[in-house]
C-alpha cells in the first residue's frame, strides 16, 4: 500500500496527533537523574586494565583462519581486544591494574553458514586460564575475581547453543568468579550470573550510517517487524523459538493492516525502521538480536517481548522509558496496548531515543568514540570498583575445582 494512503488511514483510524510523525526533527531529551549522566561518564582515570599477552592461537590466528569472525554479530570479542590495546585505561604494569583481561576469541569457530560452534570453547578457555595462572601471579590471588572475559555466545559461558545442553553444562567452572561480559541476558537463568555485564550484539555501524534518512522523515508505519516467526527446521510448532512470542505475533496480526510484518527482508529494511513508530523486538532468551540495536539507532520505539530479559547496560540505559515492555502472554493484546498509548508518551520516548548518547551506547564503532559500547563496558567495570577485599584468597586457599566439568572439557586444547 502506498505510504501516503497509510498515513491518512492511520490519522483517520486513530486520530493521532500529527506531531507524532515528527515533521520537525524530534527534540532530544536528556534523561533526568543518574541514568543520562552515567551514559556520558568517561571511564579514563577510573580504572586500569592489564591485557595479558597470549600466543596468537587464542586470538589473531583464529581470525586469520576465518575473517568472517570480524563481521559476525558476536564480533565484540575481537573489537574489544583491539580497543583495549590502544585504550588509555590500559596499563602495562599489572601491579597497577584493577582488572585483568584475557584476549581470547572463543566464538570465532564458524560453520560454513556462519553459525558459531562453541564445542572447543571450554577447552580453549581452560587452556588460556591455565597459561595465565602459571605465568603470572594474579589469577591465583583471586582465582579470577578481578578478571573479566568477553563471552558473546548464545548462552554466554555455558558454551552451547541448545538451551537444554547449556543449562546442563552451566557456566564453565573456571569462570565462576570472573566477571562475564556477554550478550545473553535472561534473568533467573543458570547461564547468567550476578554481576555480569550485558552488552548489545555487534551491528555494523558504517552500514547503518549509510542508510540514515533525514531526521524529519515522517513515521508512517505503525508497527514494523522483519524476521522469522517459526524456526521451521528445529521447531515447526513455534512454541520454543523465541518462546512462542514470534509465532503469536504472526498468528494474531498477520492480517492486521497496522502491522507491517513479514519474513521477507527488504533492501529498504533500515529505511523502513526509520519510517516506523514501533519496532517489534521479540527477543526470546537474549538481547543478542540486532533488532534492538537497530531500533535504538533508527529511533523506532522498541517493543520488547521477552519476559525477565536483562537488556544491555540496563544500569545506564533507561529501557523502561525508551521502550515498551509487553509480557509474552499479552502478545494477543499488542494492537490494543500500542494503539491506546497516549501521544505524549510516544513523543517522549521518541525524544529520548533521539538522544545521541543512546545510539552511541549500542554501537562498537571503528575507531571508538566516547560513550560507545566499548566505553559503557569500561564504565560497568569501573562501577564495580573498588574490589571487595574478600576476593583476595588467603595463602593456600583454593575455591575453584580444576577437574570439575564434563570429561571432554579436560582434554588439552
Ligand atoms: C597457580 O595455581 C595453580 C593451580 O594450583 C598452579 O598450577 C600454578 O603454578 C600457580 N601459579 C603460580 C604463578 O604460582
Ligand atoms: C572436583 O570435581 C571432581 C569432578 O566433579 C570431583 O570428583 C572432585 O572430588 C572435586 N574436587 C574437590 C576438591 O571438590
TrEMBL record:
Residue ranges of coiled coil: none
InterPro entries (alphabetical): Exostosin (IPR004263), Exostosin_GT47 (IPR040911)
Membrane topology according to the record: Single-pass type II membrane protein
Highest taxon listed in the record's lineage: Eukaryota
Signal peptide: 1-22
This protein's UniProt keywords: Glycosyltransferase, Golgi apparatus, Signal, Signal-anchor, Transferase, Transmembrane
Ranges where the Exostosin GT47 domain occurs: 46-341
Subcellular location: Golgi apparatus membrane
Family statement: Belongs to the glycosyltransferase 47 family.
Name of this chain's protein: Exostosin GT47 domain-containing protein
Source organism of the structure: Hevea brasiliensis (Para rubber tree)
